[in-house]
Amino acid sequence: MYFVRIHDTNSEDDKKHLNALSIAALIMVAYLMILIISDNIFTMASWVRIVTFLFLLLLLIATPLGIAFKAQMDDTKRLSLTFSSERSNSSLVYDPKPPILAAYHELPPGDTCKENDHDSTSDGDLQKDMTLQQAICTINFWLLFIAMICGLGTGMAAIDNISQVGGSLGYTTIEINSLVALLCIWNFLGRFISGYVSDIFMRSRGLARPLFIAITQAALSVGNIVIASGFPKNLYVGTILVGACYGSQWPLLTTIISEIFGVTHLGSYILSVRVFGYIYDKAATSSVCHLF
């Protein structure tokens, strides 16, 4: 995407800080899960709940900020050390002689052909970035489209109607609220874990990401069957499967789309000049005072 600025980073430090942020997110999810479940088991005074909730929540929210500040300080310290070492080396070592140019060696015709082949290969790789019109004409686009309808559509239908289903099955209001809250947590865990798991299996065993799409959609079908079965406490099991599998499809689909159709035009269609240009023209005309 041409409107995204890419910075050179240190992969080891990035991985360390990313793992720290991931651990902080998992701790926050575990805390919210314990809080939701404890509301159904224990009865605490309102002031105890408010104080405990606010103190721990503020502490958990401050943890990612502390990690970000530490990462920024580490980057600043590393850059300052690099700059100081470069200055010391440039001041101590001085060579007044002009640099000696290397002799020019003419490449044989075979090497020139290899270089041209390399350039043509690079151009072929760049042509993999498809526009929307080009992607629509491929079978992969429509296969992903049908997969999104079957997976995300059924998952969204179950999530949107979970409170009505719980009311028809005789669940109390507190239980329904807890189910909705836990469903959001399973959704987050599915989004969080699916990326890690798919990368691990793809790098170690060469398993493609569409295989995980098929697995999550099969588990999502089982979750819908469990919700429709109506046996006692079925929603507690069904929401785990539906929420986790529904959330896991989003990172998998976006990664698959970027790998098949390229990343140049990924997400840039709604941000194209047709949208912002139209809004800018409306705002710039003297006859229009506001946009809405």
Identify the notable features of this structure and list them briefly.
single chain, 10 helices, mainly alpha, 292 residues, disordered C terminus
Protein model, in words:
By secondary structure, the chain is mainly α. Among the domains are: 10-82; 133-261, no CATH class. 77% of the residues lie in helices and 0% in strands. α8 (209-229) runs antiparallel to α9 (234-261). The two termini are 29 Å apart. Residues 100-107, 111-127 and 288-292 have low confidence and may be disordered. It comes from Dipteronia dyeriana. This is NFD4 C-terminal domain-containing protein. It is a multi-pass membrane protein. Its main location: membrane.
SSE diagram, text form:
Blueprint: H1 11-41, H2 46-92, H3 109-126, H4 132-136, H5 139-160, H6 162-168, H7 173-205, H8 209-229, H9 234-261, H10 273-284
